[in-house]
Amino acid sequence: MEVFKEKEKKVFAKGHGFIKIFTFFVLGCLIGVLFEEILSIFLTGSIKVRRGLIYGPFNPVYGLGVAVMIGFLGKNATKRKWYLTFLYAALIGGACEYFMSLFQEIFFHTISWDYSGYPFSIGGRTTLLFMILWGFGGLLLARFVYPWVSRWIEKIPYYLGMTLFYLFLIFFIIDAFLSVAAVLRQMDRQKGLPPRTTLGEFCDRHYPDEFLNRIYPNAKEVHKHHK
Fold first, then answer.
1. 21-25 long-range contacts, Cβ below 8 Å, gap at least 24?
2. Tens digit of pLDDT for each residue in 40-63?
3. First-residue to last-residue Cα distance in the chain
4. Per-domain residue ranges of the chain
5. pTM for the full model?
């Protein structure tokens, strides 16, 4: 009986650990797609696919940005000077955007955004203006959104929360693996190379160029790195 009572006391995603940060990563991925699609409607009058993985409405660029913000700035955010949180958030957001663009270019030879024509561009990968926006967003997230959402996350029943956590974790690992494999196979396909593995054959059957071009409409091939 005491053991049963002890189990009832377990709190899902308690504190400031990996499960809590991962939960915010998932929320960031979802909100990022919604934000991009609303922005697309506002700018172009049409809805365009803005997700970053093959399956599900998830944009890991936003998810990673939110997770890193929460990881570094969420704890003790209300005790930190607001302008320090703003500065750290601007630097973290700009760094995430810059290095994810660099990673995509080095490993996939494509870019999904290029801010070269914007004022105060940093290598075309981010800009001072966007870093300021990251700063305000991070300040709002760390000081106001995180404490409130964190309390609601911890109200999720423990075993339900743990089940969802493992399902989402496994899903994201598989989704990310297939997304990377499909893009790498597309690169080989465009070079005229035949599939060398069963995975390559699987990608050719299920993720042809037409499919990937719909998933990643903003990915543009580059022939040289940014200076």
1. 21/67, 21/70, 21/71, 21/74, 22/67, 22/165, 22/168, 22/169, 23/153, 23/165, 24/66, 24/67, 24/70, 24/74, 24/146, 24/149, 25/63, 25/64, 25/66, 25/67
2. 788 777 767 678 899 988 988 889
3. 66
4. 10-221
5. 0.82
